[in-house]
Amino acid sequence: MNPIFLYIDPGTGSMLFTLLIGAVSAGYFVLQKLRMKLKFLVSGGKADSAGADKIPYVIFSDSKRYWNVFKPVCDEFEKREISAQYWTMSEDDPVFSHPYQYIKAVFIGEGNKAFSRLNIMNACVVLATTPGLDVLQWKRSKNTDWYVHILHQPGDTTFYRMFGLDHYDAVLISGEYEEKQLRDIEKLRNIGKRETCMTGITYLDTMKERYEASCKNAPEEKASAEDKTVLLAPTWGETAILSRFGEKIIRALVKTGYTIVIRPHPQSFVSEKNLMDKLQSMFPEGEKLHWNRDNDNFEVLKSADIMITDFSGVMFDYCLIFDRPFIYADIEFDRSPYDAAWLEEDMWTLRILPSIGIPLKEEDFDHIKEVIDRTVSDESLAEGRDRARAETWANPGKAAELTVDYLIRKYKQYAEEEDESGETV
Questions:
Q1: Fewer CB atoms inside 10 A, N or C side of the chain?
Q2: Extended beta strands in 37-194, E state
């Protein structure tokens, strides 16, 4: 047979996979229903307690890099001696190195294998930071009651690809502007109102504790005028720094004579692999230049005297925790792929940027050393950082506690409904 007739284009392949998963899921639920009916008849008509096989709480992580978001939640469940399961798509997820008694860590595979399992999950309450539920491969399971989204960075709920949060039942937020964005999107798309809970940001709470402890143990030293550590930490995509100015900005930074640390967004190594390979080949690791891919960004942020970024949420980690100004590439943000494109109002991130950072234009590259020096010594942005904290970081120090409180409330609500109806919910 001619090999050309065996080719299936990626789009068709994705569609076929979705259809296959739908068929498999439907078959699974039919068999489950049949099994329950047989069990009911064999038991003489006595109904089992509803949800006997249902997992009360599932935390789902699509990557080990979100462990900093979920660890505080796992710790809170553990502290309260409440059982929960942690489903991860990373075989080397840090969860496996923690000797929890009440958290059961489960590697569910990668890619389609993982989504196949998620799509037939039998759980009450699911917590996840993954957008796109019921949009692409990840479908709502008929045996799962309540899906909760937890943000993995401060900032806009509209900074997701189209329809990223539409099919969640609830979103845990950290600022009033996030609530407004969700409600505006619901009106424009005529979708159901999602529950919100003002919990805060789990990983920022933990990072703040770490930073305060580290400062007590070893007080910070101010950078000398001769040597500074400059962290280049962009997001990924066509409008991001490395895509737009990769070679040009790195070459300009190297000329400063400062220590340069480049920390691309993890997705760049997946979606922009050719670009990453090219830049790493042109600018290899050396005494004054380092490429950083640590799963935990705490140490690299703490060691940086100044950071250069674009639209990456890491800007908030840097300025809110370490209380330092930063430089951001003055690039026109393309909203078209994001939920933000539906709203006329500018994103909160873009509105707050001039109050907490210094813009960098392409024409500034030739004197970037002067821009760096001026920004490091700039104390005028402290008021803007205080305002950003107030607007985007609710309930500092309490996010994990409030998150688990919310999950427990939802579980109890379903358990009470189940007891009243005598049916599995």
A1: N
A2: 55-61, 84-88, 103-107, 123-128, 144-150, 170-173
From the list 302, 295, 292, 307, the residue with the least C-alpha distance to 210 is 302
CA distance 290 to 284: 8
Work out whether strand 144-150 and strand 326-329 pair parallel, antiparallel, or are unpaired: unpaired
Handedness of CA 301, 307, 309, 312 (dihedral sign): positive
Given a contact cutoff of 8 angstroms between Cβ atoms, the answer to whether 164 and 131 are in contact is yes
Q: Which of 263, 199, 191 is nearest to 234 (CA)?
A: 263
Burial grade of 335 (CB within 10 A; 0-12, 13-18, 19 or more) = middle
| β-pairing verdict for 357-360 and 170-173 | unpaired
Within the chain, all domains assigned CATH 3.40.50.12580 are found at 219-392
Average pLDDT, integer, range 220-230: 74
Tokens encoding 262: 């480049």
User: What are residue 207's phi and psi, to 5 degrees?
Assistant: -65, -40
CATH for 27-201+397-421 is: 3.40.50
Angstrom distance (rounded) from CA 193 to CA 31:
33
pLDDT at 411 > cutoff 80: yes
CB 397 within 8 A of CB 183: no
Say if strands 259-262 and 289-291 run parallel, antiparallel, or are unpaired: parallel
Amino acid identity, position 370:
E
Mean pLDDT for all residues in the chain: 87
Q: Give the Cα separation of 238 and 242 in Å (integer).
A: 9
- As to burial, measured by CB atoms within 10 angstroms (0-12 exposed, 13-18 middle, 19+ buried), residue 398 is middle
Dig out the tokens for 84 from the structure.
């929960």
Are 309 and 326 in contact by the 8 Å Cβ rule? The answer is: yes
Are the C-beta atoms of 327 and 307 separated by less than 8 Å?
yes
Segment 9-30 mean pLDDT: 47
Question: Left if phi > 0, otherwise alpha if psi is -120 to 50, otherwise beta: which for 154?
Answer: beta
Q: Is the pLDDT of residue 397 over 70?
A: yes
